[in-house]
Amino acid sequence: MQSCEGRGEAGVTAKLLLLNLPTELHNLVFNDLDIEDVLNLSLTNRYFWSIGRKHIQTYFMSFLGPWAGENIVCVGQYIEAGDYPPDMLTKDEEHELSQHQDENGRLMRLFDFTREYYEEIKGNVSVPTTLLGQLLDSG
User: Fold this and answer.
1) CB contact burial 68-77 (16+ within 10 A = b; e otherwise)
2) Is the Cβ–Cβ distance between 51 and 42 less than 8 Å?
3) Which phi and psi (to 5°) does residue 69 adopt?
């Protein structure tokens, strides 16, 4: 993009035309930018910040893994069978859980059930702590 400086009225008109484009077109522009350019354009004014902020948030959410945006429940050994929030499980999940018993013949706790039948997610999830730090690392 060429600078509008030193162009007088034509430069001002070009700037106003960019701001007068519909938000949908601005979003399309942001979609095609890399994260550094998204940040730079977002910092030009409050209007572009309101658009760019969503793109920056989406970028950082991508580091949280395939479960980003999903409901996550943390359970420990202290949670007894059936002692979880109402409607947390679907009827099918409740039925499946009720079919399993521990070695003493009691209903399995959710903690034991998940350890027995599901794979643990291992490894560190690296989430950038600052946007500037991430931009420097990606460059």
Assistant:
1) eeeeeeeeee
2) yes
3) 85, -5
- What pLDDT sits at residue 117? 78
Three-state SS letters, 47-62: HHHHHHHHHHHHHHHH
User: What would the two tokens of residue 26 be?
Assistant: 């601005």
> What pLDDT, on a 0 to 100 scale, did the predictor assign at position 38?
94
Token digits of residue 118: 């599901």
**Which tokens hold the place of 87?**
């409607």
pTM value > 0.85: no
Among 46, 48, 47, which residue's Cα sits nearest to residue 38? 48
Q: Which residues of 110-127 are buried (b: 16+ CB within 10 A; e: fewer)?
A: bbbbeeeeeeeeeeeeee
d(CA 11, CA 33): 23
> One-letter amino acid identity for 1?
M
Q: Is the dihedral of CA 4, 7, 8, 10 positive or negative?
A: negative
pLDDT in tens, 46-99: 999 999 999 998 888 777 666 766 777 777 888 888 788 888 888 888 888 888
